[in-house]
User: Fold this.
Amino acid sequence: MVSATVKIYLIALYTSLAGLLWGLDTGSIGPLTQMTQFSNSIGHLTSGQLGIYVACILLSASVSSLCSGHVADVMSRKYGILSGALIIAVGTVISASAKNFAALICARLITGVGQGQTISVVTIYLCEISPQEIRGTVATMLQLLITIGIAAGYFIAYGSSRLNSSLAWRMPFIIEACIAVLVAAGMAFMPFSPRWLVQRGRYEEARVVLQKLRQTENVDDELNGIRGNLEDESLQQATFAEVFSKRYIRRSVLGIFLMGFEMFCGIDAVLYYAPILFSQAGFSSERASFLASGVSGIINLVFTIPAQLWVDKWGRKFPLIGGGIAIASCFLAIGSLYAAHGGKADGEVYLSGKGPQWAVIILIYMFVANFSWSWAVVIKIYACEIMPTRLRAKACAFQQLANWVVNFTVALTAPLFLRASPSGPYFFFSSATFFVTLVCYFFMPETKGMSLEEIEMIFEMKTRDSEHVPGSE
Assistant:
């Protein structure tokens, strides 16, 4: 008989296939747009067109993520994921059959609607079905599948680039469509979030779900804790305005800040445009830059695994502060190398000397490794778990909106930025990362080993303490 813990891991693994979809897109979109088969079918894209095409998915995802909180509250977490996966399937099918640039843009916008919804709701779902002892490990399953998808996306594009027809760049979209259908079909059999059931007043159903997902049959203490927390807040419908009320403003702003500024570290400039980065650093051929990009995908995956195993032992502050210092230092070093040995010729950035070129390549890999074990995993968990159950869906919608909007900005401008200034992008990303690290050090309470209800009490006490400053009465 399958244990309750194994059941949770299996549910998390299947649900996180939504992350695999996002990773496949992230890993394959840059390489496939560099294929000669793509240019032959659609035409050559300028740096501006490339940025628009890659980034437009993030624009629709940001709008979708803002609506995802309402969808998750009304439809439930599991049907929010199911409907999002169906939308992804529609968008990727249109991408796979597109014959011009306009059709690709429309298809990518549709895909973004589904991606924004599924990623936002999966994050909530995983946090809410997990017991506190393994919540970090379960919640990182989504990021693990994203990294698997990124690595797979690079190599799928590398393999399909050998095809002589337009199927070379269409194949990644076909694979994504098949997986999206699989996710939608399987979600029909997943359990509801017990916290969502309690929020809806369906207490007996919540008890049944908890009994299936916990090691013990006696789940009354956990159920009563959830009920008490929600009843203290009342069962009235949560509103977006309440997320920013005086009672919750501290944690709401912290979560939104972390999720938004996570993207200013430059990770998506690396993941989306890795072929450009590696060609600037000395890989001249298309397939060589594809292969180098694939190696970064493997590093991304390998260094996500330690976080998957030990995030609940490390806590939340150590990975964010230690990881932040490490990834900022990598980009600071790359920027310095480009400032000393780089330049522009015929509108293209170059880096002189085999030593500096290999140093930049190694530093890019080190950046990806350090991001993978730290920020990639912990920020999403922390931003979600610090919000109270009743407001979690709507708060996470704002958080994901910030993430998508900044992601869109970086993806849109990165091709132009990378080709306009040899060192500027790296110095900018490094400075932004150091800033976030300082915020984490001074303003981020540790939540290691706490239940969602205990985390709620920490922030409630901090709010009360700030309202009763000595001498203010």
DSSP finds 24 helices and two strands in the chain. The two ends are 60 Å apart (CA to CA). The mean pLDDT is 87.
